Amino acid sequence: MLFLVQCVDRPDAGTLRQETRPAHLRYLEDFVDQIVIAGPTLGPDRQTPTGSVFIVNMHDEHAVERFCRNDPYAKAGLFASTTIQPFRQVIPA
For residue 14, what pLDDT is reported? Predict the structure, then answer.
């Protein structure tokens, strides 16, 4: 089943995202077959990351919660909030 994951960075995160990024990318390598799309959301300058978005294909919401909880970004306390929602792809069919 597909799920949309939206993570919003803490406003006081400073350089935490940059420092944790290598570990985050290594972690995601284990899920490459389950990640449909992923990347950072950007601020008004279209350069500064403000959070992360994933669409993942996982068995159930518990698997997605585990995936999110074990992400090095989450473990480092980067996110102010994380939401998980079931998602239905319509286009492309």
Answer: 82
Residue 86 to residue 42: CA distance in whole angstroms: 23
Strands (E), the chain: 2-9, 35-42, 49-57, 79-87
- The burial class, CB within 10 Å (0-12 / 13-18 / 19+), for 67 is buried
> Hey, which residues does 10 pair with through a beta bridge?
none
pLDDT at 9: 98
Chain-centre distance of CA 50, in angstroms? 11
**pLDDT tens across 10-32, in order?**
999 889 999 999 999 999 999 99
Q: Among 35, 33, 46, which residue's Cα sits nearest to residue 68?
A: 35
Are the C-beta atoms of 79 and 51 separated by less than 8 Å? yes
> Under a CB-based contact definition with an 8 Å cutoff, are residues 14 and 76 in contact?
no
